[in-house]
Amino acid sequence: EKGEYRHFMQKEIHEQVRSLTDTLAGRVDFDDGIIHLPQLNLTPELARRIKRICITACGTAAHAGMVGKYLIERLARIPVEVDIASEFRYRDPIVDEDTVVLAISQSGETADTLAAMDEGRRKGATLWAIVNVIGSQAMRIADGYIAMQAGPEIGVASTKAFTAPLVDLYMLAILLGDLRGVLSQRDRKRLVADLRLIPDLVSRCLDREPEVLQVARELRYIRNILYLGRGINMPIAYEGALKLKEISYIHAEAYPAGEMKHGPIALIDRDMPVLAIAPKDPWYEKMISQIEQAKARGGSVIAVATEGDDRLPELCDHIFWVPETPWLLSPVITVIPLQLFAYHIAALRGLDVDQPRNLAKSVTVE
Ligand code: F6R
User: Fold this and answer.
1) Is residue 218 within 8 Å of 316, Cβ to Cβ?
2) Does the CB atom of residue 12 touch ligand 1 within 6 A?
3) Cβ–Cβ under 8 Å, residues 119 and 96
4) Which pTM value belongs to this model?
């Protein structure tokens, strides 16, 4: 039931404090700085043998996979490709016994994702799945899995089943890095300790919901918007834009910010607001210069910024504040105001937030 909330989507956004607490429970040994993912069946021998990981998924799950590429390449130094499942399955992908095909799926029943797993199986890959629905087909056909602890997700727009796999992928990257001898014990312990901060950081983002609602009130009639991000937060631009378009029917585009000068900057004028994801991560200075360029062309800018930042408020028209977060975990935090923003715009426009037009919760046909 929805309880005090108007829509399941809003309830599920708020449930992320609990779902992420559950995601850590039993998997993270904070005393020794060790990650346990027993259902993955990851032996030290397999960890050392992997030459490539192909992440395959659709929609929001694919955006989680894009963050996963940053995490696994950074912490375990294994090459990772991210492929939309409907492309991967028909591309005759280069996959062999030393490849892991990693599917990410809330439902575990998405037709294209299952077909991509079948393709991996035919070619001899190890199959892993990160899935939310226990007993789903993706879980059954995988050699190993991580069960997301999101709990049942009812709203069609995925929210808590986006942040749960982000944390799962972070834990997986640490585990792989450790088993392959890439991570020092000190780094591993620090990375594991950072996980403890997550539920509280999410809760602090949610406390700022009234500020996000205020911006949504001002911007509820926009027709277009451009989401920009870089580095590990680039996929959050895609995810924020998808949330807005699927429930509010506003045209939202996402770009890696560095691509602006290669074409899309031509779009910017007073009628094309820019939403810039610019927390204090290693790409912060690059984002600032991108925002300056958008402002110089008359665009209004909304930025996701780290609390205490004194440059962005002077530059931007609106700010979504997020607490300071270790940068490898920042996508878990920066996405929260974007979920709330999409939700409130759609709710203010009187739309059917939980059942948007033309969409189904689980896409079991191709
Ligand atoms: C967007 C959304 C979809 C799903 C996609 C994959 O909010 O929910 O883009 O992420 O259809 O679904 P699963 O994760 O069930 O494979």
Assistant:
1) no
2) no
3) no
4) 0.97
